[in-house]
Design a protein that fits this description.
The longest helix is centred in the last third of the chain and has 19 residues. The chain folds into two domains: 110 residues, D-amino Acid Aminotransferase, Chain A, domain 1, CATH 3.30.470; 157 residues, D-amino Acid Aminotransferase, Chain A, domain 2 (Alpha-Beta Barrel), CATH 3.20.10. The chain is an alpha+beta fold. It is globular and about 55 Å long. Helices cover 29% and strands 30% of the residues. The strands form two sheets. Strands 7, 8, 9, 10, 11, 12, 13, 14, 15 and 16 form a ten-stranded mixed beta sheet that branches. Strands 2-1-6-5-3-4 form a six-stranded antiparallel beta sheet.
Length: 276
């Protein structure tokens, strides 16, 4: 059984060097996604985004994208999981002085069994709080998630399940690990800039183009009373209804039919993928 790959070797129980700059300094980028019928959905898109992210923070990949793809498929075949979540991590590499890499970048690929999120998230929706926060390198999936983790911990203590980042103008940009969408009538709104453009977000926008009027702009908090429905998107949770923001109900305060429509359109994208 193999569940991980680290710098040229496969492992059942992985371990990394404590001198890796990803561990010491959070210097690295990653991708995190799941399989559908043992297929790593939209893997090519994810690998090209990984390359773009690594380049943005001056990390040169030690493997080609094809090599990384082959490793991912090898792990899926040999990890004995029904479905997997996969995390691809690229770091600046090993250091001796805590700052300067002494060899090429590290490639770490971890797999574990996929565990569905609670069904009530999708049936009843979730609550979110907002905060003003500008992420470092917003268009890059960097390893540093300290703000997200501390904010989520505080939100859970208040009964919320997500935190939405806003800019200084009071516009909702994205969530801690997700993109944000709002529905106003037949309009589907999501921010265009200052966010990580998620793969799930991009696929959904493509599938919704013939069903909604797409507006690529952030929603201002002043518009919340005009919003009929809202939801978040991510590769692991997919589409999750948002029923309240800062304790203010969204629409009826229940998951709505258009959010369900979006979920079905997104699921159809995976059905088409697995039938290819």
């Amino acid at each position: 059984m193999k569940t991980a790959y680290i710098n040229g070797e496969y492992f059942k129980t992985p371990s990394i060097s404590p001198f890796d700059l990803g561990f010491l300094r959070g210097y690295g980028v990653f991708e995190h996604f799941r399989t559908y019928e043992k297929h790593p959905a939209f893997l090519s898109k994810r690998l090209h985004r990984l390359l773009k992210a690594a380049t943005a923070i001056e990390i040169k990949l030690s493997h080609t994208l094809q090599e990384i793809e082959d490793i991912v498929y090898h792990l899926i075949e040999h990890n004995d999981f029904i479905e997997s979540t996969i995390r691809i991590i690229v770091t600046k590499g090993i250091t001796e002085d805590g700052l300067t890499p002494i060899r090429e970048s590290s490639l770490i690929i971890l797999t574990k069994p996929y565990s569905p999120f609670p069904a009530n998230y999708y049936k009843n929706g979730i609550h979110a709080l907002t905060t003003v926060h500008n992420r470092l390198f917003p268009e890059v999936k960097i390893l540093n998630y300290l703000p997200a983790m501390t904010l989520l911990e505080g939100a859970r203590e208040k009964g919320a399940q997500e935190v939405l980042y806003c800019n200084a103008q009071g516009e909702i940009l994205e969530g801690t690990t997700c993109n944000f969408f709002a529905i106003k009538g037949d309009k589907l709104l999501t921010a265009k800039e200052g966010i990580l453009p998620g793969i799930t977000r991009d696929i959904l926008l493509e599938k919704c183009a013939n069903h909604f009027d797409i507006e690529l702009r952030p929603l201002n908090l002043d518009e919340l009373s005009e919003v009929d429905e809202a939801f978040t998107t991510s590769s692991i949770k997919e589409i999750v209804p948002l029923v309240a923001i800062d304790a203010r109900p969204i629409g009826t305060g229940q998951p709505g039919p258009k959010t369900q429509q979006c979920r079905e359109l997104f699921r159809n994208a995976f059905l088409e993928l697995t039938l290819d």
